[in-house]
Design goal:
The chain has helices at 2-21, 26-36, 45-59, 67-78, 82-88, 91-108, 119-144, and strands at residues 65-66, 113-114. By secondary structure, it is mainly alpha-helical.
Amino acid sequence: MKRNYEALFGAFYENYFYFKSEGMSGPEALACTCEAYFGMDKRGEMEKAVLSIAEGRIHLTHSKIFVKSKQKIIDALNSLDLNKLQHEIAPDDYQDILERRDLVLDGIESIPVDYSPNTRYYYFEIEKDVKNYFGILFNEVSHAG
């Protein structure tokens, strides 16, 4: 079972970074990754735990989190059936999942929330355009002087 547990974490992160490499913003890439795993959390407590933790860990790297995503992750992690989970995985993996769960639950509280599901996708585009503009401006000024 250990291989499946680690493989699921790895596959989730691999999909996320694939979407990012395709030019998507962090929230877009995470949304696409979550869609790819839609329904898998119904297979068992291990899948529910791993997918919720992986999604939460990625959210910890973002500047904001959509309010409903935050609540979904908190609810999923707090509703894990720890008895079922303990029977599905090895004792070391169980401890690892609990530690990762606690890390996400502690960290997610401090992430500012975003109340608009559409606006957060534009942050990336605006930031990219502003950096590009100032990069061009900087190059023009440095070549003129």
